[in-house]
Amino acid sequence: ADPSSTCALGCSPLRAAVDNGRPSVVRSLIAHGSSYSPWPSAPAAVEAADLVAADGPRCDAVEGLPDGFQKQAEGMALPLRRLIVLGVPPSDVPAAAVIHALWLPLSQYRKALAALAPARESVLLCCPKVLDSDTCAALRTSVDASAASNADSVDGLPDHQLDLSLAQLEGLIGKKALQRIERLPTAFASHEGRASSMGVAPAAVRIHTIFIRRYCANERPWFSFHRDKGPLTVNVALKDDSFHSGGRLLGLFDSAVRVIERGEGEATVHPSTLLHAVSRMHPGGVRYSLIVLFRTHEPES
After folding, report:
1. Looking at 74, 98, 116, which one is the last position of a domain?
2. Full-model pTM
3. Same domain as 19, residue 68
4. Record's Gene3D superfamilies (predicted)?
5. Half-sphere exposure for 110 (CA within 13 Å, toward CB)
6. Per-residue pLDDT tens over the stretch 163-210
7. Domain termination residue (choose one: 116, 131, 150)
8. 183, 232 Cβ separation under 8 angstroms
């Protein structure tokens, strides 16, 4: 096999070896004719792999983690652990390394590949002030008072969330705020690229699942990369990102891992094709979000 060949994501064997911290593999590939690009020299490529490898055994990766999360961290592929647990800058971890590290089934891999290239405006709609400060505070109080801790349906680890019915949500935020959320699919589909990523007409979707989720270092510190069910997700930040350390929303789009910074009350709207995650929370802050999942609605005959 050609040691300089690339996969569908443009990732070469050398690139994969560096991203996974395998300096001995890097040396072997270069010795067998692999190009060391984009590094300026072969030693630079080996050094890059050494630096990545040094992150693997870092003790702060697992110290003080809640039950279940230490085991998940230890089992993560190095590109995921560096992003989610260690909090390295997203620019240090190529999106291709993340997708390969997830070991997706072929059909999901192809979908992830197709979803990676579009620019931000084709997969994200960010709407500030969908909820005002008082409403965000009321939702935070509700989840603090009533959150249940159950095994999450995606990763099986404890979540801290409050499930709501549509009527309960309206009771907490009011009819006008609920209507603003219900109109977001139409706003999302106003852009041709976003409409294509959504896959269905706005009139065909309805609110299906609602919950408020709380993240903090000693409960639910992170959420690794995943995709949501249904054509569209609305994720409303109930606290400004500047009020906690870590806990950043990460997304794979525009051919890279991107940070999606949010202010209090801001809605991030995205299709189910978007791979996204929440990086590790650090002590001293709490992250809150309102999640509204839209599903295809079958009209009554």
Report:
1. 116
2. 0.86
3. yes
4. q2cbj1_9rhob like domain
5. 2
6. 999 999 999 999 999 999 999 999 999 999 888 888 889 999 999 999
7. 116
8. no
